[in-house]
Amino acid sequence: MQIVGPNHLHGSTNALEVALTDDVLVVHGGTPLEGRIRVRGAKNLVSKAMVAALLGDSPSRLFDVPRIRDVEVVRGLLGLHGVKVTDGDEDGELVFDPSNVESASTDQINVHAGSSRIPILFCGPLLHRLGHAFIPDLGGCHIGPRPIDFHLQALREFGATVDKTPEGLHLSAPNGLHGTKFALPYPSVGATEQVLLTAVMAEGVTELRNAAVEPEIIDLICILQKMGAIIKVHTDRVIEIQGVKKLHGYTHRPIPDRIEAASWAAAALATRGDVEVLGAQQADMMTFLNVFRSVGGEYEVTDARPPKLGDPGQEGGIRFWHPGGELNAVALETDVHPGFMTDWQQPLVVALTQARGLSIVHETVYEQRLGYTEALNTMGANIQVYRDCLGGTPCRFGRRNFKHSAVIAGPSKLHAADLVIPDLRAGFSHLIAALAAEGTSRVYGVDLINRGYEDFEKKLADLGAHVERP
Ligand code: EPU
């Protein structure tokens, strides 16, 4: 048996097969996905909103929280630091009581080492609440080196001292945290969040230049504003934060997950299906919708209508479908907002294997986010990856020997294969490929998908996919 997966897992290894036996999904491909599913709060906002609750002096309430692994990790870390996290009355509602924030031991915190990237965002809130912080080794997807130099540089500018040790990062702020002027070398999402979560209670004014302005960041700003923060978003990626002495809890319903919504849209296109994604919001997905239409997919936006007397109202969403006939090749470049999200890239590429002609994808956010194309090629796709910046403007990775551009020649008939999932988004694209392919695939390591896609197996069943646990 040949298992296709990350390089270190390549080969026909019985041991690997045994190790992964419990974590495999058998996918009988070739059936269009059809039906309706719902997305809840965005993974990349919800986890940060949970960290923000640490800053309040009264309880916070967050709705529409998906049951995903990243949420469990943050919930565990909050609990270790004395924040009482309980389920609210509504399904998906969490309540955070930060009235007894306390230190946790490095051993306790290290239980979460390597599980997520969110722990790095605990720095500012813990420094404000406790005067010190310990951050374990970070996890997250292996899509490049993912350094945290911008985060640490910013924290030092605020007055924190950072001690890197083999067990993790120890931070303290002996003289408190003070507002600063800081320009990010690149509009990093995480570093922008780090600055926001630290500046809101630092003494004085902070001016952040070259900030990321993703919808999830704007939603985090809304949360912090609800808590009592003063934050101005200026033009040209400048954010100004006036530090305040105290913040209180918030009540918030987060923006829906636009990465998950696009993933199901790509799955509908690749399988020649028709999927309505309730909760998907047009305003946050404009760039995706433009590309989806250029490829030849169709969509229809339904606006939400609040309930009124005698009218139950209507939940908004977007229906995505393959209209029949051939798809078109496109050239696209991933970028920071408002560009085409890097996380939309992998699922969409599976659909691009079905488009006639040469599509070009230039990945400019992460240097190593095209490795998954190897597995698609084993299934019959024709994808070449290049070190050059193809089809667009030169990016940071152009002269640095990273294969970060892909040319997809299509259409290709995909056939079944045995696959090992390498990371979250690539994993979902493997799943889409297996659903689109003729025959029966075995997808190993599917549990990784639970990090970011709530109830994905139930949603697959709701969409008529023929999948089973062996
Ligand atoms: N970067 C640095 N130094 C830093 C921080 C970032 O060089 O200190 C570089 C990164 O290596 C990368 C680029 O800047 O090349 C962008 O990274 P960014 O900081 O924006 O990403 P992130 O905050 O680590 C979040 C999401 C990612 C998403 C990116 C881009 C979370 C938990 N993760 O990551 O989501 O791809 O923003 O939008 O919010 C996912 O959900 O699967 C995922 C990977």
TrEMBL record:
<comment type="function">
    <text>Cell wall formation. Adds enolpyruvyl to UDP-N-acetylglucosamine.</text>
</comment>
<feature type="active site" description="Proton donor">
    <location>
        <position position="141"/>
    </location>
</feature>
<comment type="pathway">
    <text>Cell wall biogenesis; peptidoglycan biosynthesis.</text>
</comment>
<dbReference type="InterPro" id="IPR050068">
    <property type="entry name" value="MurA_subfamily"/>
</dbReference>
<comment type="similarity">
    <text>Belongs to the EPSP synthase family. MurA subfamily.</text>
</comment>
<keyword id="KW-0963">Cytoplasm</keyword>
<feature type="binding site">
    <location>
        <position position="365"/>
    </location>
    <ligand>
        <name>UDP-N-acetyl-alpha-D-glucosamine</name>
    </ligand>
</feature>
<dbReference type="Pfam" id="PF00275">
    <property type="entry name" value="EPSP_synthase"/>
</dbReference>
<feature type="domain" description="Enolpyruvate transferase">
    <location>
        <begin position="28"/>
        <end position="460"/>
    </location>
</feature>
<dbReference type="InterPro" id="IPR001986">
    <property type="entry name" value="Enolpyruvate_Tfrase_dom"/>
</dbReference>
<dbReference type="InterPro" id="IPR036968">
    <property type="entry name" value="Enolpyruvate_Tfrase_sf"/>
</dbReference>
<dbReference type="InterPro" id="IPR013792">
    <property type="entry name" value="RNA3'P_cycl/enolpyr_Trfase_a/b"/>
</dbReference>
<dbReference type="InterPro" id="IPR005750">
    <property type="entry name" value="UDP_GlcNAc_COvinyl_MurA"/>
</dbReference>
<protein>
    <recommendedName>
        <fullName>UDP-N-acetylglucosamine 1-carboxyvinyltransferase</fullName>
        <ecNumber>2.5.1.7</ecNumber>
    </recommendedName>
</protein>
<dbReference type="GO" id="GO:0008760">
    <property type="term" value="F:UDP-N-acetylglucosamine 1-carboxyvinyltransferase activity"/>
</dbReference>
<keyword id="KW-0808">Transferase</keyword>
<keyword id="KW-0133">Cell shape</keyword>
<keyword id="KW-0131">Cell cycle</keyword>
<feature type="binding site">
    <location>
        <position position="117"/>
    </location>
    <ligand>
        <name>UDP-N-acetyl-alpha-D-glucosamine</name>
    </ligand>
</feature>
<feature type="binding site">
    <location>
        <position position="343"/>
    </location>
    <ligand>
        <name>UDP-N-acetyl-alpha-D-glucosamine</name>
    </ligand>
</feature>
<keyword id="KW-0670">Pyruvate</keyword>
<keyword id="KW-0132">Cell division</keyword>
<feature type="binding site">
    <location>
        <begin position="43"/>
        <end position="44"/>
    </location>
    <ligand>
        <name>phosphoenolpyruvate</name>
    </ligand>
</feature>
<keyword id="KW-0961">Cell wall biogenesis/degradation</keyword>
<feature type="modified residue" description="2-(S-cysteinyl)pyruvic acid O-phosphothioketal">
    <location>
        <position position="141"/>
    </location>
</feature>
<keyword id="KW-0573">Peptidoglycan synthesis</keyword>
